[in-house]
C-alpha cells in the first residue's frame, strides 16, 4: 500500500544501504592496514644484523632497520586513520538507520490509519445494506 511516506522510505533505505557499503569498505581498509603492519613487523624481525664484518654491512643493516621502522610507524598511522574512518562510518550508519526506521514507522502508522478508515467505511456500508434489507423483509411480512 502506498502512502505519502513510501518514496521517503525507499530513499532512506537506499541511503542506509550506501552507508552499509561505506562501513564495509572502511572495515576492509582497516583489515588491509592491520595485515600490512603484521607483514612489516615480520619483515623487521627477519632482518639479520651482522655480528662481525665490514662497517658497510653494519651501516646497510642499520639503514634497513631504520627504513623498516619508518614503514611500521606509517602503517600504525594508517591503522589509526582507518579506525577513525570505521568509527565515522558506524556513526553515519547508525544515524541513517534511525532515519529509515523513523520514516518506516510513520509509513506504518499511515497504513494503519488508512486500513482503519477502510474498515469504518466497510462497516458503514454493511450497516446501510443491513438496514435496506431489513426494511424490505419487514415490508414483505406486513
Ordered list of secondary-structure elements with their pairings:
Layout: H1 6-46, H2 55-141
Helix pairs in contact: 1-2
Please describe what this structure looks like:
Helix 1 runs antiparallel to helix 2. The chain has one domain (6-110): Helix Hairpins. It is mostly helical. The chain contains two helices and no strands.
Defining key terms:
142 residues; Helix Hairpins; mainly alpha; 0% strand; single chain; 90% helix; 2 helices
Number of domains: 1
Could you tell me the mean pLDDT? Answer: 90
Morphology:
rod-shaped
Give me the secondary-structure category: mainly alpha
* Percent in strands: under 5%
What is the level 1 CATH name? Mainly Alpha
**E-strand count:** 0
Estimate the helix proportion, in percent: over 70%
* CATH 2nd-level architecture: Orthogonal Bundle
Give the terminus-to-terminus CA distance.
48 Å
Helix and strand string, N-terminal first?
A: HH
Describe this structure in a few short sentences.
With 142 residues, this protein is mainly α.
Amino acid at each position: 500500500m502506498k502512502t505519502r511516506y513510501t518514496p521517503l522510505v525507499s530513499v532512506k533505505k537506499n541511503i542506509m544501504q550506501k552507508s552499509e557499503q561505506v562501513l564495509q569498505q572502511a572495515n576492509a581498509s582497516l583489515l588491509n592496514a592491520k595485515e600490512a603492519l603484521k607483514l612489516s613487523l615480520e619483515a623487521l624481525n627477519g632482518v639479520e644484523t651482522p655480528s662481525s664484518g665490514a662497517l658497510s654491512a653494519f651501516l646497510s643493516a642499520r639503514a634497513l632497520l631504520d627504513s623498516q621502522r619508518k614503514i611500521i610507524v606509517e602503517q600504525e598511522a594508517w591503522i589509526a586513520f582507518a579506525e577513525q574512518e570505521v568509527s565515522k562510518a558506524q556513526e553515519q550508519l547508525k544515524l541513517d538507520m534511525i532515519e529509515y526506521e523513523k520514516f518506516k514507522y510513520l509509513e506504518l502508522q499511515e497504513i494503519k490509519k488508512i486500513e482503519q478508515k477502510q474498515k469504518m467505511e466497510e462497516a458503514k456500508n454493511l450497516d446501510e445494506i443491513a438496514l435496506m434489507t431489513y426494511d424490505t423483509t419487514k415490508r414483505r411480512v406486513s
